[in-house]
Amino acid sequence: MTRSAYLFSLLLITTLMFTRCAESEPDCGLSAIQVEVSQVTGAVCGQPDGAIVLDVQSALQDLSNFEYSIDGGMTFQSQLIFDGIVPDLYTLVVRDVNAACEEMVSQVVVPSGISFDLEVMPIIQTYCSVAQDPQGFGCHVPDGRANTDFLQFDVIQANALEIKNRVLTRNMPRSNSGLTLTTEQIETIVCWVNDGALNN
């Protein structure tokens, strides 16, 4: 699937209000800075060509004790650019190394730009919302054997996370349906859900 990555410019996401410092610490140092997500570059679904760029504003001259994470605080770096990342939902955390203090700032989506109408719905119509599968059963249609009708966008959107989980575990389509999703089709659905399950 080919798609040129595109750039999203974001306004200030949040001003950091850090509260996890030990009570004995008079100031973690984090209250003196503001962090913005200044740019998000979308990525092709499944490809590590996205980026998140941060902007830090502070009256402090030395910011070397601050580190940044986009994986919820599992790994940190001092650089303000995270590149080579796939489309997904990322959790931005900032920490003051000297004071052993950190706080989550915001969640940021690196989008893939997958279209529901052009890419996701055709998969659902062919593999999920079928009047009759090769075994002779209807699924995700009125009076089908699944109790959720996937002919309406709002129903699909409300079940987006479940759909994502079920295609990832290959529980949908059912193994006895005779239908199987390709890896690319699964990635398309996952990317669309991670983008926010948009009606696009």
Description:
It contains four helices and seven strands. By secondary structure, the chain is an alpha+beta fold. It has two domains: 7-110, Immunoglobulin-like, CATH 2.60.40; 116-194, no CATH class. The strands form two sheets. The protein has a four-stranded antiparallel sheet, with no helix packed on it. The chain has a three-stranded antiparallel sheet with strand order 4-6-7, with no helix packed on it.
Keywords:
alpha+beta, Immunoglobulin-like, four-stranded antiparallel β-sheet, three-stranded antiparallel β-sheet
Layout of secondary structure:
Elements: E1 7-9, E2 33-41, E3 50-58, E4 66-69, E5 81-85, E6 88-96, E7 101-110, H1 116-127, H2 153-158, H3 160-168, H4 183-194
Antiparallel strand pairs: 1-2, 2-3, 3-5, 4-6, 6-7
